[in-house]
Design brief:
CATH class of the largest domain: Alpha Beta
CATH architecture of the largest domain: 3-Layer(aba) Sandwich
Number of strands: 16
Length: 471
Amino acid sequence: MIKYFYLFFCAFFINLGTFAQQDNRICGSEFPPQQWEIEFQRLITEFIREHNNNSTQFTSYSIPVIFHVIHGGQPVGTFPNLVQGQIASQITVLNQDFIGNGLNNGTYPANAFIHWVVNQNLPQANRDSLGRVKIANLNILFCLAEKDTNGNTMPEPGIERINYISRGWLNPASFITPQTLRAYFDGTIKPQSIWNVRKYLNIWISDKNAAVQYTGYSTYPPLSGLPGITIGGSDSTDGIWCYSAALGSSTIFPGGIYASPNVKGRTVTHEAGHYLGLIHIWGDGNCITDHCNDTPPAFTSNIGLPVYPLNPGSCNSPSNSPDGEMFMNFMDYTADPGKYMFTVDQGIRAQIAMLNSPYRNQLGTHGLCTAVIGIYNGGVQELSEEFILYQNYPNPFNPVTGIKFSIPVPSFVKLIVYNVLGSEVEILLNKYLIPGAYEVEWNAGGYSSGVYFYKIIAPDFTEMKKMVLIK
C-alpha cells in the first residue's frame, strides 16, 4: 500500500513564498534522510505482513500533551501568554482531525480522486462509500496532561507558563531567521524546559519575529538502531514548536488571539503529522513521493483556498490527471479552512511511529490524562445553550459504550461511573473544557454485568443516567 522508497532525495528546502496574514502555514520541519525512510519502510512491510494485509485495523492511542507557554511576563490573556480556552481548543482540533471528523470535512467533493483510486488500484480499505480516497480515522487522540512530572495534579491541565525573562533567556521574537530561532529553541529553551519525551508530547508556543516566515516545526519520530541518523528529536529536543497566534481555533474559541480569522488549529495538526512520521504531500521537491499510494503527487506546496480539481496533470510519474493534487490534505500548506484530511496510508505511517519509535511507543501508558472527542456535525461544531447529558450508546453494551454531553460555557467537568450500590467505580473525566459537544468512551471490560450509573458534575449542573452492561 505504501509507495516504494526512492533512491534519491531532493535537498531540504523551506518555501519562503507568499505568506499573507499567516493564512498559509510554512513549516520548518526537516526532511528525513534516505536511511531513515528505508528503515521506516522496512517497519511498514513488517507491520503489513504481521497483520496479514489487514493493516487498517488501527490501534487506539491517547497522547498526553504539555504546552510550554513562553512569555515575557505578560498577564494571562495578553499575547503571547494565551488563555486556557485557546490552548484547549487546539486539543479539540487535533482530536477531530485525527479521527477524520474535522472542520469542513463535509466539503470534500463527491467525485474527488475517484480516477486516482481506479488507476492506482487502491485497496477497498483506502476507499470510501463513494469510491473516493477515504478520509481516514487514525485512531490517535490527544489530551491535556493532568499530572506533572512528579505526579502532581496540574492546576491548569497541560499548561506550563514560563517567563523567559526570569529564566534568563532571550526573547524568541529577537531572532530574525528560521535557523537562529530553531537553534535557540533546540539549544536553550527546549533542553531547560522539556518534560519526559516518553510520557508527553511537548509543544512550545511563543511569539516570533515577523521575518521568520514559518509558523511551526516538529521533530520526526526517532528510530532505534540507526547510528548517525539525527532526524528524530533527542530527549532534550523532541516535540513541536508553534507560533502562538497560529495555535487554536477561531471557530471553536473565538475569544482567542489569532494571526487571522483563518487560524483553525491546523498548524499543530500539520506538525503533529511530522511528529508521527508523515512527509509533506509534495515530498519536499517537484512531484516527489510522500510514500503513500493514496495521495496523488503534487508539483510543490499549495497555499490559500484552492478549488478541486487543482493542477491536473502537474505530475506525470504517475500522472495525477484528471484529479489533480490533494490540497485538502493536512500535510500541504493550504490555509487552515481548506484542509481536512489524512489518508489511510498516512494512518499506517502514524501507527508505525507509535508502535516503533522509542519516544512514541510509551505515550499514553502512564495514566496522565483522558482523551475527549469534540464532536462536529457537518463541519460546524454543535453548540448548546444549556448543559445536556445524553443517554449512552450502545445501551445495553459489551464492553464499550460512548457517553456524549454538551456544555454551553467553559467549565471544569467531571464524569463519574457508579455501581448499583452507589459506590464510585471510575472517574472518566475531570478536566477543563471549552463550550461544545463531547464524547467519552467507557471500556467496562474489567467489570461484571449489571446496572451502572454515570453522572456529570459541572458548575451549577449535575445529572445522572442509567446504563446496562451485559456480557
